[in-house]
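Objective 1b: paired records.
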Amino acid sequence: MKKLFVIALALAAVAAFAPFASAGKVIRVGDDYFIKPGGGTATVSKNSTVKWTNVGRSAHTVTVVSGPVKFNKAPLLKGTSYSRKMTRTGTYRLVCRYHSGQRMTLKVQ
């Protein structure tokens, strides 16, 4: 019985701290912008998860054109999200390949 109590207590502790373990950043992808019109910069800690959510009407891409690691998510359809754990520090420059002026900077520290 004592062993069962200890297991239950451990599971409760994991559940209580789970939201903190997955801390990250949500980036809104709208029609022709990341974060805000004209671009923007987001800063996250190493090993955090960044989630790009398409809140616009059009499909987009999340494409790294320069940075420690390159990746490309295409297409990011209306109402969908793409998440990536950022494991390498540095400055990432991202664009949408479908919309020439759509860009952002992501700093991983």
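Objective 1b, second protein:
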Amino acid sequence: MVTPSPSRGVVLAQAWGAPITGNSEARVGWSTGTSSMRTTPVAGFWMARTEVRNEEFAAFVKATGYVTVAERAVDPALHPGLPPEMRLPGAVVFTMPNATDGSGRLTQWWRYMPGANWRHPGGPQTGIDGRGAFPVVTVTVEDAQAYARWKGHDLPTEVQWEWAARAGRSGTPAHDPPAGANTWQGLFPVANSADDGFIGLAPSGCYPANAYGLFDMIGNVWELTADRWTDDHGSAATPGVDLAQAPTRVATAGQHVIKGGSFLCAPNYCMRYRAGARQPQDDDLGASHLGFRTVLNAPGP
């Protein structure tokens, strides 16, 4: 059952029984970010209809004085050997190149940009004026958890997130780009035809909701979850998926699972625009394609 609550901006997703969770697809290639299938029960919960918007995060910062991880200097103890410019406060920003050399090196389109943060998601010369309805980005799991606590909410677990994203569907979806979602159309990373209406981020909630009334569960921005990253749902092993798809560093800071894909997912590159796909994200590294939404673990009306 799904119960809308427009005044609270959330829907109640009552998930009793044993729904599909985790990765419901067989691993089909290095770029899919999927693993084995398993089922697990999940209790009912409320989930925010949209990713947290800039205007909502701004209200949190104004009320609390919170300073995000991207606005703080990098801890050299966690990342010894980083060059000086990467120790400055900042985040990883996608920059579309004119061409690539075919090596697959992320530095051809990802740059660590000092001064990039939620207020300046594309770097110091950018801002969010007039973009209050866009999802907040360049946030970390620590930032997302702080916001969630302020709201009296939590971050969704991977189980909760995937159950909500599937919206009652089961089986293995096609690997074609989804209709009605903000993903990359064209040859990544050099050409985006913007057939979906946007080259970069889209405002939260401008594409059709899924069957549970939730917007942008697939595409637009990757979404942080409460779960620490492991290579397999039943394992605490060191990550073994292809990390070349994610803007990560050699790190000891830990990683969490992110879900849903983003506006950068394309058939020739990421292809993680599916509910079952997953990826690790460094706990202390914000990125310009990374946001979050919250859940309320409470009974229904």
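DSSP finds three helices and twelve strands in the chain. Residues 1-301 form a domain with the paralog of FGE (formylglycine-generating enzyme) fold (CATH 3.90.1580.10).
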